Task: structure prediction
Amino acid sequence: MQSRMYETTFTLAARDVDFTGRLRPSAIFTRMQEDGEAHAKALGFGREALLSRGLIFVLYRAQLEVRQYPVLGEAVVHRTWPGKSNRFFCPRYHTFSRPDGTPLAAVNTLWAVIDLESRAMRSPLTSGLSMPDTSDLTPPLPTPDHVAQLDGPARMRAHTAAYSDLDVNGHVNNARYIDWICDSLGAPLLRTHALTSLLVNYSREIRPDTPTQLYLRGDDQAFSFLACGEGDERFFEASGTLTPWKDDRRF
Result:
């Protein structure tokens, strides 16, 4: 089963939680990236294997749904497995639960294979990626769709990609975009409301020192987010929903 599905149990540490002591949304994306890479390596197409052929994986879309947020010191079980690749993308699925099986969150992702030299997409079907047959495993969520931007006035702030935003691929890490969203939503709102769903589309990579305009629209129930460069070039889009906390654990 480990060849088809990868499972880890981890305990939430200080780096994984926010100022409320609950799991940080971006930490979900970091855990997905790290365990997905570990599984890909076990299957023979991890980062080093791809780099030797001039390729990397880049996250293209993700759909997140959260049922409950675990807290500092709590154990969480993460399971991940790949879906069937098509000529454009490699799907990968993730579930997070308590050790007793209580569901916490689920994520469906689409990954693109990128040529390092040209930065162009390559078809997974011609890239020598041999995925295991997981057709009997049910995806936890639908395939991520396009983001629809909300109408209305936007709150805008400027940000330039800096040292702390960048990863080993030399561009803004996918989890850092989630932090940008939460920074725009603001600590006062996220103290009283839980981020319960998030749809993200990664359109273009953001390289070091790239000036970026960040736009947030919506209210304390639903929002959309857009990161643009010069000439309104779209780098990243997201939409999501928020739900008031009833207590420390429930919403």
About this structure: The CA atoms of residues 10 and 235 lie 32 Å apart. The chain has two domains: 1-144, 146-251.
